[in-house]
Amino acid sequence: MNSVPKNIFLIGLMGAGKSTVGRMLAKRLGKTFIDSDLEIEKRCGVKIPTIFEMEGEEGFRKRESAVIKELTQLENIVLATGGGCVLSSDNRTCLHDNGFVIYLRANPHELWIRTRNDKGRPLLNTADPQKTFKNLFEIRDPLYASIAHQTVETGKPNVNQLTNKLVMQLELQP
User: From CA 26, how far away is CA 28, in angstroms rounded?
Assistant: First the structure.
């Protein structure tokens, strides 16, 4: 597996499977798995919804950028990023330049179905979460695509199939 990139960064909207796939991918490739949102929570001692409540999205994004900058300097990791990390051009540069970026892409309706019962997602605490997903997708999809070295549709295959597909593709990287 010498051809596997040293760092793999997973990007995509919430519910795309970044953490689930990331854990399995790291295990299969013998890499360390890190979830940037969990890292932020660990450092702050509170959950992300609390950070949003106390500091707003802007405060959270500042914390997220600092963590992304630091984590992208590590080696031999699989990093699952927060869905909004691509809103910062600095984050996009850090991710693209320091690892192999995989965009786990799914349509907004599928993502809404996957996350509709999760109360820990501050951006979905709206009157119409389905519309929110559609809006987030329209804004972020081009940003994800702009830094991705590879885009993988996550709609059909189960997590094991998706992980197997990614491992095979990563092993073929030049």
Answer: 5
